[in-house]
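[Discussion] Sanity-checking designs against the backbone

I'm trying to build intuition for which residues belong where. Below is a structure token string of 481 positions. I'd appreciate it if someone posts a full sequence so I can compare it with mine line by line.
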């Protein structure tokens, strides 16, 4: 039974290493330009969780609880670490448990000062930023000191572990390094007494966690209220508002994961052990849930922050779709088509930077229309066509020979070989020129409204054409032109 549990821990740790490594890649190469210093805070916690996942994978810690005892242990035959490092790894594993919530507290402070423009914002863009990063280390150091002073091994704990747990797994106390609480240890004559030392240790830990959680709740609530009531009325761009909303909700769910998987089970175990009512099942629950934390925690950032989601879906999803052509058109549409949030206005250069992927598999108008027609709030979507050189209207209202209809356009997507079924809006293509310039309508788009399901040539180099119509997204395509 234990071997399966150890294997699951190692697999979960490996997934945690991969997920956090992938998120670090996204943060470095796919972040919005206006993310600012927060990018380094995100990398900071991802590196922390990557280390935590690696430590869990290499040490395979176990948790045992019974009556008033709660122990975290590492067995020498289950870890790749030398014996001289096992106790340090045990302390480090437990200290990182407390450090995690302190890191999230710093994140919520940053979110609040950024959204509100608080004066503390300047401390995140100067050398003082290092001080913010140093706070979690202080928490981790305090946890380590408390553990070494109050929660280390003792004869009563050795006896309980040997009798109630290690004898069942064929291990001796010399093969185990452990820390933990034993509130009511038993004397040699069979009587129990109250031990103050673990009580002080757990009290210090709970107090430290309480401070971190109060910071999270306070700044999280104030940030949420400001975003709902004040931010919509400010002159900030819709792009800024959308980004702040995505970052807040990603952080909210990212914080919720360790609270549910780590801190809540541990809190109930502390209460149960203090009441001398704990059982082995209570110890097994956190031993399962804690290992899930570093593997699940990167996911809110990956799938809530639009830039990271688009990069993941468009780039990885496109590879999957290339190998599985039988996937339904609906799933294909969900994976391949990415749109802006209604209300945001962003130029084609920004789309290039944020998407930068090849459009493929949208071979005819019905394919594109089935995806675009029901997307609320969009105007039109570029479908890869760009007018060929020599096919522009120069001073005359007639295209050169060989430039009529779709023949006048190049398609950068070489897989887009079937173009039959595409229907033009009335009197199009017209190749109109932008007033007082040499910019012509050289890009092919699919209208969503008002000319639904029809194609038209429009301006390439501006997100807003002379009639006020906005190109609101495109199907995982390259920059038009």
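Best answer:
Here's mine. Compare freely.
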């Amino acid at each position: 039974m234990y071997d399966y549990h150890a294997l699951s821990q190692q697999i979960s740790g490996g997934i945690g290493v991969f997920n956090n490594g992938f998120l670090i890649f996204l943060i470095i190469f796919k972040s919005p330009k206006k993310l600012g210093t927060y990018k380094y805070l995100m990398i900071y916690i991802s590196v922390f969780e990557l280390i935590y996942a690696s430590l869990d994978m290499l040490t395979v810690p176990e948790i045992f609880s019974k009556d008033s005892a709660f122990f975290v242990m590492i067995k020498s035959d289950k870890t790749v670490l030398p014996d001289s490092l096992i106790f340090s790894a045990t302390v480090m594993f437990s200290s990182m448990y407390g450090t995690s919530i302190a890191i999230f507290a710093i994140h919520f402070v940053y979110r609040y000062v950024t959204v509100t423009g608080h004066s503390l914002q300047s401390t995140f863009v100067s050398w003082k930023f290092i001080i913010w990063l140093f706070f979690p280390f202080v928490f981790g150091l305090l946890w380590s000191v408390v553990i070494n002073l109050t929660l280390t091994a003792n004869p009563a704990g050795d006896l309980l572990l040997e009798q109630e747990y290690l004898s069942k797994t064929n291990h001796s106390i010399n093969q185990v390094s452990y820390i933990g609480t034993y509130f009511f240890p038993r004397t040699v004559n069979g009587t129990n007494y109250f031990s103050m030392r673990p009580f002080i240790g757990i009290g210090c830990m709970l107090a430290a966690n309480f401070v971190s959680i109060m910071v999270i709740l306070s700044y999280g609530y104030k940030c949420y209220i400001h975003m709902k009531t004040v931010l919509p009325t400010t002159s900030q761009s819709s792009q800024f508002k959308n980004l702040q909303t995505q970052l807040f909700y990603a952080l909210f769910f990212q914080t919720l994961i360790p609270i549910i998987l780590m801190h809540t089970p541990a809190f109930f175990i502390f209460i149960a052990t203090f009441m001398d009512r704990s059982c082995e099942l209570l110890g097994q629950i956190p031993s399962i849930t804690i290992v899930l934390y570093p593997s699940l925690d990167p996911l809110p950032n990956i799938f809530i922050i639009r830039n990271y989601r688009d990069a993941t879906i468009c780039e990885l999803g496109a590879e999957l779709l290339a190998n599985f052509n039988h996937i339904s058109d609906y799933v294909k549409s969900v994976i391949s088509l990415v749109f802006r949030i209604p209300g945001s206005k962003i130029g084609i250069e920004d789309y290039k930077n944020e998407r930068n992927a090849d459009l493929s598999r949208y071979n005819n108008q019905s394919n594109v229309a089935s995806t675009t027609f029901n997307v609320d709030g969009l105007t039109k979507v570029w479908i890869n066509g760009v007018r060929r050189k020599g096919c522009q209207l120069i001073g005359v209202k007639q295209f050169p020979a060989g430039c009529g209809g779709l023949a006048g356009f190049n398609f950068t997507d070489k897989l887009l070989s079937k173009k039959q079924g595409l229907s033009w809006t009335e009197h199009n293509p017209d190749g109109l020129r932008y007033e007082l310039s040499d910019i012509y309508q050289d890009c092919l788009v699919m209208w969503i409204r008002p000319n639904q399901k029809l194609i038209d040539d429009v301006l390439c180099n501006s997100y807003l054409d002379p009639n006020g119509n906005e190109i609101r997204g495109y199907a995982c395509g390259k920059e038009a032109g």
